[in-house]
Amino acid sequence: MPKVKVNDINMYYEIHGEGFPFLMIRGLSSDVYRWPLSLVKEISKHLKVVLFDNRGAGRTDKPDIEYSIKMMANDTVGLMNHLNIEDAHILGYSMGGSIAQEIVLNYPEKVKKLILCSTGCGGPKSVPASEEIRKRLASSREGLSDEEILRNSISIYFTESFIQNNPDKVEEYIRRSLLAPIPPYAYRRQLMAAFNFNSYDRLKNIKTPTLVLSGKEDILVPHENSILLAEQIPKAKLILLNNLGHGLFTPDPLRISKIILEFLT
Predict the structure, then answer these.
(1) Which of 119, 129, 99 is nearest to 220 (CA)?
(2) Ordered alpha helix ranges (H), the chain
(3) Which of 115, 192, 234, 253 is 20 to 30 A from 27, alpha carbon to alpha carbon?
(4) Phi and psi (nearest 5°) for 224?
(5) What is the pTM of this model?
(6) Which CATH architecture has domain 3-264?
(7) Alpha helices of 63-139 — where are they, by DSSP H?
(8) pLDDT at 143
């Protein structure tokens, strides 16, 4: 299990396949285990897929200090430098999309093509989740088991029809998500970093070819945020997918991998 010292932390990473580098950045409280294996396998037939755990999650260090999206962007670039990756395609999912935006804005030479999935610009211009969803995200996790926390959040990530019709896929997602659960303090640190992010006024500065991808039934980061990103980022391409929620990859990994590869290759 490779780790490398980046800034003040030891970062866990994996490399799958060969070819031009493609970094995939996970979201809030998430780690590499949550990428569907079939998605990674398919994309790695064409590109060198680099997966890693953000600070505070998975098998990367979890210092109990203030986090920021810019800090996590700098972690990512530090990992790229360690791996001798001069530039790469970068996909950011959810909070990972915020990290990806911060990378392309501060290190544009590092990003060949950009994919922003189920994410937004943050700040007052963004379209928030409902008050009920926001309360669930911010509620205390103390006294709950990791499995209870995860099962309580499943309906945020997936549509009701997917949960009812695909119990095996849901249980596999839960199983993999429990392999390296995030401690409550680290979750709060990541959550505050995500809450404080705002890129709206800087989006016009992104010159990198960009794909914005979202599920139309996303209740965590409503798809209107993707429309806003695509409107503000010059020449961005927007794809909105029917019958998909925030958990964009799990329901049909091969469909999503096809969309990704068509844009990148």
Answers:
(1) 129
(2) 37-43, 69-82, 95-106, 131-138, 146-157, 160-165, 167-177, 184-195, 224-232, 253-264
(3) 234
(4) -60, -25
(5) 0.97
(6) 3-Layer(aba) Sandwich (3.40)
(7) 69-82, 95-106, 131-138
(8) 84
